[in-house]
Every structure is written in C-alpha cells, then in structure tokens.
Write a structure and sequence with these properties.
215 residues, alpha+beta, Ribosomal Protein L9, domain 1, 2 domains, six-stranded mixed sheet, two-stranded antiparallel sheet, globular
Length: 215
C-alpha cells in the first residue's frame, strides 16, 4: 500500500465464517478509491470488531452506536455495539471498542471474547431474554463499561438496549452477564457458575455448557 492511498489500515482476524467473504471483498476493493464507502460498510457489518479501518487523512471514522446494543444471538455469543470499554485485569488498563463479541458458552480459549468454540461445544440457546435487566437509570451514561469477574460473570455499567435474536428489544442498565453457559436466566447471571465450578483460568474450557435456556 503506497503513501498516497487513502487507507492506513484494514485488518481482520475473523473466526465467523460469514466474514471470510468480507475479508476477500476488502482485499479486492481496498486499492480502488471508487469503493471506499463499500469497504466501510462491509467492515462495519462485522459484529465482532475483528475488521476495522482507519482513514489516513483523518476523515470519517467509525462512530460508536448510540444507544449501545447488546444482541443475544441464537446458539452463539453476545454481540455488543457502542462505546465499549473492557477492563483487561492488568493494572488499570482497558480496551476500547465499538464492536465486540463476548463468549457465553463457557468454552472460549480467549475469554471474555468469543472464539467460535460454541460451535464445537454444540451450545444451544434460543437467543431469548430469560432474566430481567436492571431498572434503567436515566442518568446512566450510554457508554458501556465491562468488567470480567474471574471465574464469574461480566459486570456491565451503563445504559443499553438488549436485543433478542428475533429483534425484540428492551431497555436496561447495568447487570451481570452470564459467561459460563449454565444460567437459567440468560443472558444474565444467576450464580450457576459457582455450582458448576466455572473457571476463567487458561485451559479451563472443558466444562460442558448448558443446552437450552431463554424463554
């Protein structure tokens, strides 16, 4: 890529099969200025955040979704769009993302992120909302702060829209998201991780996730 081209970076490390085509499409059109908008639209459709772009000229950058959306996928991860910060657990460091996929089957080797292990684990969940989100605080920020708890759920701070796999939406604020795969109140934690001995330590992906859940 030469210095006079518009793109600084387009990168991807995608585990979801539907986006292998997206990577190829970007490779085909990235050098053609006529297709800039098309490239941006392809990248922003990637729900995991694995595809991203930057403008070398400092022009249009991807904007975080407002309000933030947490989508409960059928038999898969939680897809989150918005101004999202994720505590890394190392000092006060945090990751900042606009799109991210969180594991909820309990089997990912890249916790708290999804690595597609739900497929081999045959994780089954209808993508419905069984638990109830916290009462929405009108003063809470739209930006989301995620804090993965060792051997436990992901704590959420901030306001969001929770979306079922069929598109049904409800508003919420705060809460704890299940990531062991055993909660009867998916996508929220009900403490089941304690009973099943869920662990977030490396190599702790052998516990079978619960099949089913949701209403």
């Amino acid at each position: 890529m030469t210095d006079d081209q518009e793109y600084r970076a387009v990168e991807g490390d995608v585990v979801h099969d539907g986006y292998i085509v997206a990577i190829r499409e970007i490779e085909d059109v990235v050098l053609d200025p006529e297709n800039r908008v098309e490239v941006v639209e392809v990248v922003e459709r990637c729900p995991t955040g694995a595809l991203r772009y930057e403008w070398k000229s400092g022009g249009r950058q991807e904007k975080a979704a407002v309000p933030s959306v947490i989508r409960v996928s059928e038999n898969g991860p939680l897809y989150i769009r918005g101004d999202v910060s994720i505590e890394s657990g190392v000092d006060d460091e945090s990751l900042r993302e606009n799109r991210v996929a969180l594991c909820r089957c309990g089997r990912s080797k890249d916790k708290p992120f999804c690595d597609n292990s739900h497929v081999s684990a045959e994780f089954v969940d209808g993508g419905r909302i069984a638990g109830e989100p916290a009462v929405r605080d009108e003063q809470a920020p739209h930006a989301l702060s995620l804090k993965p708890i060792p051997n436990g759920p992901v704590l959420v701070r901030g306001r969001y829209v929770l979306e079922e796999a069929d598109g049904t939406r409800i508003e919420g604020e705060g809460g704890a998201l299940c990531r062991c795969g055993h909660s009867a109140s998916k996508p929220f934690c009900d403490g089941a991780h304690k009973q099943v001995g869920f662990s977030t330590e490396p190599g702790s992906d052998e516990a079978d996730p619960q099949v089913g859940g949701g209403r």
